[in-house]
Each structure stands twice: as structure tokens, then as C-alpha cells.
Amino acid sequence: MRKFIGPTVLTISMALGLYLLFMLYISGQTMLAAVFLGLLTLTTFVFTSPRAYAYRYLFPGITAVIVFVLLPMVYTVSIGFTNFSSRNLLTYERATQYLLDETQRVESTGYALTVHPDNKEYRLRLESPDTGEVLLTEPLALKRAVSLNVEVAPLDPVQAPVLAPALPIKDIIALQKDLKLLTLILPNRIELRMVGLREFGPVAHVYKQLPDKTLKKVATGELVTPNFKTGFYEMPDGTKLEPGFKVNVGFANFVKIFSDEAFRGPFLRIFVWTIVFALISVATTTGLGMALAVLLNWDALRFRGLYRTLLFLPYAVPGFISILVFKGLFNNNFGEINLVLDALFGIKPAWFSDTTLAKAMILIVNTWLGYPYMMVVCMGLIKAIPADLYEASALAGAGPLTNFFKITLPLIIKPLTPLMVASLGFNFNNFVLISLLTGGRPDFLDTTLPAGTTDLLVSYTYRIAFEDSGQNFGLAAAISTLIFFLVAAISLVNMRLTRMNKA
Amino acid sequence: MAIVVDRSNRWRILAAHVAVIALIALVMFPFLMILSISLRPGNFASGSLIPPEISFEHWRLALGMSYQAPNGALVEPDFPVLLWLWNSIKVATMSASVTVLLSTTCAYAFARMQFRFKSQTLSALMLLQMFPAVLALVAIYAIFDVLGSYVPWLGIDHHGSLVLAYTGGIALHIWTIKGYYQTIPIEIEEAAKVDGATQWQAFVYVLLPMTVPILMVVFLLSFIGAIIEYPIASVLLHEQNNLTLAVGSKLFLYEQKYLWGDFAAAAILSGLPITAVFLLAQKWMISGLTAGGVKG
Questions:
Q1: pLDDT (tens digit, 9 = 90+) per residue, A317-330?
Q2: pTM for the full model?
Q3: Do B44 and A64 touch (CB under 8 A)?
Q4: What is the distance in angstroms between the CA of the first residue and the CA of the last residue of chain B?
Q5: Which residue of A has its CA nearest to B103?
Q6: DSSP letter at A248?
Q7: Cα–Cα distance between A186 and A66 in angstroms, integer?
Q8: Burial of B271 (0-12, 13-18, 19+ CB in 10 A)
């Protein structure tokens, strides 16, 4: 019985896979279907061939890493070389189709529309007020919200079926979404579309495709050519038509980052702040953490266990909650920190609108968040130092400061360095802190694209991609690519340091 | 311990106690404040740090109940906090299960089998782990946008996409589990094979039961990791009822609509269980922490 389970599961999965493949192929995604076919073949091979036995264990996990970690990285780099943005969102084919689907009402009278229920379906009855001609569609479901072309023919009054009473206007409003997607085609190929709540009218396509990829504006005869440098269809006078399409722009995004004056200024300032922030964060968290670790390893101190637990708490609370708590506590007007400061010193610092104070606040919060990790790590390292070293130094009459600088620090700094570098890399990309605390604000006043004085490179990238009106994915991906190199450099340094420790 | 004791030692100890207690007071300040704020009527500072009267209005709202305001109006909860908590737990449980499933099998192959490119694959996994997902958000968004047009429940604004996106982060766990497997003598599995077990049976019935503790640790680690994850969730989820806690909590503190008291109650309600899980798990985690994981 047991030995059938494996093959059965495999067969069923293969059947499902083949079905998906078939669906992909039918929907016209040939490339995607080919990739999927390759994947399916590989899966079958790995799970049937005895030679690939070890890979059976690896396959699912490695596939997940490749698809959800490696692929997004590669894709990000490739987006960096395109003009992908909210204005150039579609592929060339989709943008062309969009323009070809665009219609315009023709100057002629339309047909009065009534909708009649027919069981669970609907029939549309159209009557021309001029000629009295009546059109009636077959029963339509009007449920799927997809574009639909329906042939319709004038009705012979003699054969007219008995129709249920017409729907009231509020039901037509409910059906409006589907009705708008409906194109009725008359025998003489004139297309009718919904032009008003009670009216269908003849429409004509605005553009016609010519064999040489250009479009012709039917009304004026103007030629519209696709420009593969800018990613737009352009009129003869250079006007760009929306929507644009995605094209390869080479190094344009990178050139923009480094040479566009309006962009280079804020980018460099943000870059400098990112580095300063990461360095200071590592310094403060390590400094405080190490000091506490030394104190809490002191045998003469009582209640060390309790102290340790309480001091560890900031690390145990989910970061997004504590950061938001600080956001509220630091609030300029009704934050509790300003309440205390006001009562004690009569000052109300504007933590969120003053650049320097905002940066100070970020560093304070990040120290609070980060020191417990360093504390725990340092405590572990200090425990490993042989006690007789301290006994010897005590005999020699050394004080605690001498002990720290001559024994403790030199002994823990080497294993600590890779962790400090890792922490540097982490803070370099500390998106959650900035995004939840200040959102990068206060903004620079002298930039074209919104850029924040407290933005790190990653949060700046996020703003370019998802928040500000432009949604310039291409530019954001180009900056991400640059950060990839920085992260890779930090990682390499870190690996070198770790290896040195082991040697 | 027989360390020579200095005469000024008592004063030093006292100074150390004072310093540590002062620091603890500073560190604990946000926790105590948030508790006080959650019990204080109204959403704005009332001028005192300890609430003069205790009101449970914020707690009622956080628990999804309505209450009657002093002016007689019915106040309904603005945000579905419990639903968000449930979403978070759902996504985290699923992604932690998938993570454990994928990383145990991978780690077994790395620990016990010989195949080509083994050490290269291991290093590559480690290296990939160092690039934070926040850098590839645009691509992740685009990938799930496409995926969603074929398989709706894996698209934008569905929890399936989030679970899938989180399964990519298994590299560190593979290393952890592999290290644990290697501490277990291979002779036990070999004995099972001599008795006629296949490799798969030796893995599932012999090795796996001995490694339950590390699997628990990995489960908890990835569970917490998924609960506190913010960037990917903020990009993939939009609709208010689909949000996870990490994304939703932010909505309380908009300048235009500042629900400070409501946030305080929601923060304690959701933060307490997560913190408890973390503290319970931390004694196992310390070893994992020094291996280079930095929590966000």
C-alpha cells in the first residue's frame, strides 16, 4: 500500500502541472508556458530518476529560494534598465491594443436602451427614435466583467418574442459595469456601445493599424508612430499618447542618478546620511551593549538576572510596535516625551519638523532597539574569557578601566567585528525604522522629486517606487541595483573577517 | 571567587546599581507610558502621565466592541485589530510550516548526502540571504502581479502570495538545521538501513524524531520573522481587512487621524503574545543570534 503513495502523488501533481501548462499555452503566454514546461520536466526528472536522488530533498527548497529571492534580484536589476513606471506600465503589445480599442462616438443618433430580464439572463432591446428600427440581443449573462462582442440583427416585428417588463434605472446602474464592456455589432459592421445610461450609440475606432507598425488617426489621417526610445506613441508634432509602454532605456536611469543636477544633490545627501546613520547606530548600540555586558558580568553585582531580563525586553517586543510607540511618544504636540520635557525644562522640541532633531530621535530610537542584541552577544563573549586573567590583573593592582581596555576589549573585539559589520549592513538598509518613524520626513525643500532629510537609500527607493505620484519603478530599481553592490561589498568584508577569526 | 577586593568596591557597586536602575527606568518608560495611555480616556494627552481616571474605551475598541461616548454617541472600532492579529498569525503559521518542511529536507541532503556543487550551493545560499527583500520590492510586486492574473489566490492582496514570498528566506534555517543534524551520529541511521529501511525512512522515522527541538526553534524563529515582517506585506496587501498587524498598526497614527489611545490598547493586545513567544523561545535562540541574525 505504502509504496503506491509516492507515485500516485507524483502522477496527480504531473496531471495538475500539465493542465496549468495547457491553460498558459491557450491564453497566449508562449514564453511562460515554455519556462513552465522546462520546470515541469526538471521536476519529473528529479523525482523519478535514481541518479538525482539527493536533489529530491533539495529541489523544493532551492526552487523557493531561486524563485522568491534570486529571481526578484535579477528582475530588479533588469527593471533598472527600463523606463517601467506608472506612465509606462504596459508592454508594447498591450499599449497598442489599448489604443486600437479606443473608440469615439460618431455624430449620429443612438438607440434607446431597455434591459429585459430573461430567466437569469438579460436581453437588450434597442430602438432607434428616428426610424423605429428595433434590435434585440440573445439572452446575455452580464456577469463576468469581460469585454464581449455580440452580433445583433434588426428584429422582424412579427417574430418578436414576448419580453418581460424593462428593468428600472437602478438595476441598469447595477449592470452598468458589464454593459459598458459590451460591443454590439450590426450586420453592416457598425459597432454600438453604451454611451449613456439609456442609450447605445454607434462608435468608431480612433486609430487604425497600418502594416508598418504605425497607427493612423482615422478622423484626421495623422500618422502616430511608436517611439522605442521614449516608450510612447507620438503624434507628428511630438505629442505623446498615453498609455506609454515599457522599453529598454540602457543606462539612462543610472546616468540620471549621477549626472542629473536636480537628482544628484539629494541622492548624495541621502547617501551620506545613510552611512552616518549606520555608523553611529553601530557605535551607540555596541557601546551601550558592551558597557552593560561588562556590568552584568560583574559577580559582585546582585539582581543581575532581573536586570538582564528587563534590559533585554526592547529586543523581545516586535519592532513595528515599539517604533510606532516611539512615534507617538515623540509627537510634537501631544507626545508624552514633550510633556515631560515641558514640565521639567519648559521646552517642546519639534522632533518631527526639525531636521537635526528628527535625526537625533531616529538615533535614540535605534539605540533603544539595537543595544540588547549587542549586550547579549557581548555577555556571551565575556563569559568565555578565563577568570584567572582578571585575578592576575587584580594582583597587579589594576583597576576596572585597565581591566576593560587591557583584557576584555582586546579579547572580544575580534569575534565581535563580523557581527558589527553585519549590524552595519542591517542598519544601512533599516527600512522599517525610517518608514514607520518619520517616513523620511521632513522633506528637502529644494528638490523636484520628493526626498526626505531622514530618508535612507532604501526608504528613498521605496518612495520613488510606491509613494510619490510618478511611481518610477525603473529609477527605483536602478538605485536598488547600486545598493546591491554596496551590500555585496559589506558581505564580502564580513565573510573575510569571519574566515580570519576561524583561522 | 577569590578575587582581591578593593576598598572602594562598595561604592562602585552602589554606583553600578544606580546607573543600571536609571537606565532600566529609561528603557521601561515607553512600556509604562503605553499602558497608562491605553487606560486613559480620549486620544490626546490629558496633561498627566498617570491617568486620573481609568477608562476601558480603548480596550473595548481594540477587542472589536463598541462603546458609548460621554456625549451619548456610539463609538465603533475604526480598525479590525483582532482580524489583523488573526491574519498575521495565519500567514506566520503557514509560512513557518512551509519553511520547516522545506528547510528540513534541504538540510538533510546537505548534512548526509554527497552531490556535485554541494559546498558552492551552501555558500550561495548564505550569500543570497544577505540581500534584504526590501531592495527587490518592485520585482516582488511585479512577479506577484503576474502570478495573480493566473492564480488569483497567489496575487496581490491575497495571503497566499505573502506566504510564498516568505518561503524564500530559508537559507539561514537550512544552515541551523544542518549544523544540528551533524551533531547526531550517522551510525543510528546506518543501523536502520542495515535493518532494511530506505534512505527516506531512515530520515523520517529515525533522524527527524531526534531533531524535534531544533525544528521547534526554526518554526518559532520563522513564525516571529513573518509576524514582524513589514516591507513585503506593505507592498502586497492593500485592503484594510487583509492587512497584517505590522502593516495595519501604522494606520492608527496618521496626522489627520491620530488615534493614540486606541493604538496603545491595540499595541499591548497584539504585542504581548508575540513578546511572550519570543521570550519563551529566546533561550534556544541565543545560539542562533550569534550566528549572525539581526532582528528587525
A1: 999 999 999 999 99
A2: 0.84
A3: no
A4: 39
A5: A61
A6: B
A7: 52
A8: buried
